[in-house]
């Protein structure tokens, strides 16, 4: 079951977590089972996340995934075997309907935040949507994106669309991202729940030439800061062996370290 996305004061945030990409059924099930245990232990609602396609890889040789059919099959199995709701990205408008039949929540990638057809197709599916703010957009720019999504939902007859805005850092020179914490406040004042993507915010896009790098040592301090500022949810990619993950390993949280970080997050959230 999906959580209430608008966080009440003093309560834990919801967490979107999982591997960057669907590497295998076994890996996804193992991570999802651990996340379910963490959710039960700490009282944090968890939505399992994995992408069936990473369409924005730096190099043509980067692992993209095993395709939409296999990816959705794995996500459906994760959902049925663990009871966790599941989320994945869409990159094209014509993917939205098929994805919405399987997942509980749809996500649109940061690079595609200005793609009107994609945003509107995702919002018209009737599922909650997490819209990532583009690295090249200012927080106030997301008001127009939110307006597109709400208009599409209204046209589709959806009375109470669940549209979230997600911060994942802004471009700051070459191969670097920074997080302006003011943006979390600005976007929350638009009336939409706000999610902070703590792992992609420490990415160094293209920093390795043919691949992106990351600074995972900054995930925890940024996540704690975002929680203190006031967000409704957190997004963290996690993996049991990030250094050998097939995508985005340098910025992912080791699965073994996730519980301790989340305990800190719960304590901060309890302060109000």
From TrEMBL:
Tell me which residues make up the DAHP synthetase I/KDSA domain: 10-261
Matching InterPro entries, A to Z?
Answer: Aldolase_TIM (IPR013785), DAHP1/KDSA (IPR006218), KDO8P_synthase (IPR006269)
EC number, as in UniProt: 2.5.1.55
- What's a Gene Ontology MF term here? 3-deoxy-8-phosphooctulonate synthase activity
**Top-level taxon of the source organism:** Bacteria
Protein keywords = Cytoplasm, Lipopolysaccharide biosynthesis, Transferase
Judged by the first EC level, this protein's enzyme class is: transferase
**Catalytic reactions of this protein:** D-arabinose 5-phosphate + phosphoenolpyruvate + H2O = 3-deoxy-alpha-D-manno-2-octulosonate-8-phosphate + phosphate
Subcellular location per the Swiss-Prot or TrEMBL entry: Cytoplasm
This protein's pathway reads: Carbohydrate biosynthesis; 3-deoxy-D-manno-octulosonate biosynthesis; 3-deoxy-D-manno-octulosonate from D-ribulose 5-phosphate: step 2/3; Bacterial outer membrane biogenesis; lipopolysaccharide biosynthesis
The family database entries (HAMAP family) matched by this protein are listed as: KDO8P_synth
Entries under PANTHER family matching the protein: PHOSPHO-2-DEHYDRO-3-DEOXYHEPTONATE ALDOLASE
Q: Which family does it belong to?
A: Belongs to the KdsA family.
Task: Return the protein name.
Answer: 2-dehydro-3-deoxyphosphooctonate aldolase
Q: Which organism is it from?
A: Erythrobacter fulvus
């Amino acid at each position: 079951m999906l959580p209430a996305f608008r966080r009440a004061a003093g309560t834990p945030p919801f967490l979107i977590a999982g591997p960057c990409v669907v590497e295998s059924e076994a890996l996804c099930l193992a991570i999802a089972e651990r996340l379910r245990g963490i959710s039960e232990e700490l009282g944090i609602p968890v939505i399992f996340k994995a992408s069936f396609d990473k369409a924005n890889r730096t190099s043509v040789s980067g692992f993209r995934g095993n395709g939409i059919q296999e990816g959705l099959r794995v996500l459906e199995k994760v959902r049925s075997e663990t009871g966790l709701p599941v989320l994945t990205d869409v990159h094209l408008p014509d993917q939205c309907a098929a994805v919405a039949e399987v997942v509980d929540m749809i996500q649109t990638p940061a690079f595609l935040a200005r793609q009107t057809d994609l945003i509107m197709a995702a919002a018209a599916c009737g599922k909650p949507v997490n819209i990532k703010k583009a690295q090249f957009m200012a927080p106030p720019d997301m008001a127009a994106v939110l307006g597109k999504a709400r208009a599409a939902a209204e046209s589709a007859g959806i009375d109470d669309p669940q549209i979230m805005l997600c911060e994942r850092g802004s471009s700051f020179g070459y191969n670097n991202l920074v997080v302006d914490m003011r943006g979390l406040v600005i976007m929350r004042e638009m009336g939409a729940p706000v999610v902070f993507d703590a792992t992609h915010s420490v990415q160094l896009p293209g920093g390795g030439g043919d691949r992106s790098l990351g600074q995972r040592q900054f995930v925890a301090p940024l996540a704690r800061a975002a929680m203190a500022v006031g967000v409704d949810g957190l997004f963290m990619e996690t993996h049991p062996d990030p250094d050998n993950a097939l995508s985005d390993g340098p910025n992912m949280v080791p699965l073994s370290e996730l519980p301790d970080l989340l305990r800190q997050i719960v304590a901060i959230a309890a302060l109000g």
